[in-house]
Design brief:
Blueprint (H helix, E strand, L loop, with lengths): L6 H12 L16 H9 L4 H23 L16
Protein name: Leucine-rich repeat-containing protein 40
InterPro entries: RNaseH_sf (IPR036397)
GO molecular function, one term: nucleic acid binding
Length: 86
């Protein structure tokens, strides 16, 4: 019996590629790895929050630029609440 594919998976992957989001592999399920070690493995010395903020800023900017060309407001569903003030 064949398992049906998720209809949104291909669209999501296309969207991520279009906007240049890097897809990182799922971390190993090892009890020997602490979250702080995973952070250094996947992100080097950069802070996870800094990477998230940068990614969201670039995504929001891309959406704003695209919508400004079309004369459309930026969707409120974009997760700007995760952007923290300095």
């Amino acid at each position: 019996m064949k398992t049906p594919k998720c209809l949104g998976a291909n669209l999501t992957q296309q969207w991520l590629q279009r906007y240049g989001w890097e897809i990182i592999p799922h971390p190993a399920h090892s009890p020997d790895l602490a979250p702080s070690e995973l952070q250094s493995v996947y992100y080097g010395q950069r802070d996870t929050l800094e990477i998230l903020q940068e990614t969201l800023w670039h995504s929001r900017t891309a959406v704003q630029n695209q919508n400004n060309r079309r004369g459309v407001a930026v969707p409120s569903s974009l997760p700007v609440g995760l952007m923290l003030a300095d």
